């Protein structure tokens, strides 16, 4: 069995690209990805929100790839953005990366991140029963 998204009938449908719950098989390997910001491999932080958001997602996916996981294995994403005005842009970036996968999700508008130049941070959990 792979991860299974579910949507309880006694709840309103999700407001966005996420599932209300995800069941993970008991023999799944879990990978926790620390919060990733918009810094690229060379330590550069773009001035624009979309560039930072894409870098944050690319960093998360690099962690997953290192552990032989892929986007479809993501079961939870926590998103932190510093300005609600960037919500639509962020949702577009998130949709570009998630494709058809619908992990559980929490999105927070925060007053700031570890560095005032950071506009977005993404952390996630992935699970898979694939071997090797």
Biggest sheet: strands, sense, closure? Answer: 4 strands, mixed
Strand order of the largest sheet: 3-6-4-5
CATH topology-level name? 60s Ribosomal Protein L30, Chain: A
Name given to the CATH architecture = 2-Layer Sandwich
How many structural domains does the protein architecture include?
Answer: 1
Mean pLDDT: 96
Task: List low-pLDDT spans.
Answer: none
Task: Output the number of helix runs.
Answer: 2
Distance from N terminus to C terminus (CA atoms, Å) equals: 17 Å
Category from helices, strands and their pairing: alpha+beta
Oligomer: single chain
Q: CATH class, anyone?
A: Alpha Beta
Principal-axes shape call:
globular
Instruction: Please name the fourth-level CATH homologous superfamily.
Output: RutC-like
- Per DSSP, what share of the residues sits in E-state strands of 2 or more residues? 25-35%
What is the number of E strands? 6
Tell me roughly what share of residues is in helical segments. 10-25%
What's the order of the H and E elements? EEEHEHEE
**Cα Rg:** 15 Å
């Amino acid at each position: 069995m792979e991860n299974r998204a579910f949507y309880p009938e006694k709840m309103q449908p999700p407001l966005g690209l996420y599932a209300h719950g995800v069941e993970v098989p008991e023999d799944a390997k879990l990978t926790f990805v620390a919060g990733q910001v918009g810094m690229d491999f060379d330590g550069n932080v773009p001035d624009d929100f979309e560039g930072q958001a894409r870098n944050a997602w690319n960093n998360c996916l690099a962690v997953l790839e290192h552990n032989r996981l892929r986007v479809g294995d993501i079961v939870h994403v926590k998103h932190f953005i510093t300005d609600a005005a960037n919500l639509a842009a962020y949702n577009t970036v998130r949709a570009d990366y998630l494709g058809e996968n619908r992990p559980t999700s929490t999105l927070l508008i925060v007053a700031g991140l570890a560095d005032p130049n950071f506009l977005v941070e993404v952390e996630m959990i992935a699970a898979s029963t694939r071997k090797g």
